[in-house]
Write a structure and sequence with these properties.
Two copies of one chain form a homodimer. The first copy, chain A, is mainly α. In chain A, 56% of the residues lie in helices and 11% in strands. The longest helix of chain A is centred in the N-terminal third of the chain and has 22 residues.
Chain lengths: 239, 239
Amino acid sequence: MVKPLSQEDGIFLSDLKKLLDFSPKNLDYYKKAFTHRSIKLIDTKGNPINYERLEFLGDAMLGAVIASYLYKKAPEGSEGYLTQMRSKIVSREHLNELGKDLNLIQFVKSNIDQANVGDNIHGNIFEALIGAIYMDRGYNFCQKFINVYVITDYVDLDKLEGKITSYKGLIIEWCQKNKKKYSFDTYEDTGNESVKHFSVKISIDGEQIAKGRATSKKKAEEQASKRVFFTLQNEIAES
Amino acid sequence: MVKPLSQEDGIFLSDLKKLLDFSPKNLDYYKKAFTHRSIKLIDTKGNPINYERLEFLGDAMLGAVIASYLYKKAPEGSEGYLTQMRSKIVSREHLNELGKDLNLIQFVKSNIDQANVGDNIHGNIFEALIGAIYMDRGYNFCQKFINVYVITDYVDLDKLEGKITSYKGLIIEWCQKNKKKYSFDTYEDTGNESVKHFSVKISIDGEQIAKGRATSKKKAEEQASKRVFFTLQNEIAES
């Protein structure tokens, strides 16, 4: 007989499903991934329960999945190029941004005031979540999650290489050159979250092309502009 | 219609099967894993063919598989402990030893004299081979290969932690304490290989318990002693 979930676990499971896009098998890994050491939990054998070991595991999985992505994506890239691109993708700053945009902090149990945990907790729990996915469902689920949240949304080799410095600039320039009317509708959209968020809708010739949402106006606009870029890639390339 | 293999490829495939314990699907990855940059090969798109990119990929996979092994094997180990143990397992010295013991250099195509390629080539091609396995057959095959060749044969957390400094010493001490006759039969056993090898057979009370083979007498004896230790683990623990 399967034990029914407590109300709290039920809500956690439902939130996780939305985030992960699959159903977790063992909630314990995810609880651990969101438990800060300040909670001082221990398991039945006396080992501490917190996200630090899962963070180590997730970091390793992230490194492997990104290596495999780059190997396939950049067949002309030397070992040095692959190493450099990977460091940019898995930089502390980038991981913190990913954790913040997913608002993972909402799940964290900690005895320290959220204002005092520092910025790195966002990246750390993002890595711990990857570790939890690996333990719960294995490498392929882990790879899929990283593809969706790290690679599709954030990785752009052209931009990382410095070829494109601003998608917003690129989109505006293209619209002006091709006599298209564009609008960036940017507004604060924090909702119930603890960290301030902004949303943006980009329309071209009156048609909404893409939306973005992030922790700063600039990031949200870049994210939405990048989506416009990929949506209109062929038209932009022809012009 | 499948193109028949050249004689050279047929021999390579048969050697690889013995080494890998599974059948490779795409020989090209393995050929690349054993091609040194001095060969100056390029593919149809002008990209260089050598093992350096596969080495990057294999290094990442090795890191991930070892992280997952340690996470499960040492539930009491902190993030710091896991990190430290992993660095020892994937140290340059250790990887060179693994590559040498598998005699991977026999497959290498290079325009540089073997005497001048340096010691690190052994570890580099070991990593490249892991990268080739990943590209050819995916993560699970990769993990299995690492389990057999890195973990079973070489990893011993007690020894890496410094708790056991010599298995040979431990076995001799145990035999003396328990009045057992022991013999180490150590001899040169290079065969057709390019690097000198030694073999050892360890017998206790006239019965052969384990064999070892490595590139030095000391390593072969430690390897065989470790196997004796794991074979007689219960008896040794009781004494």
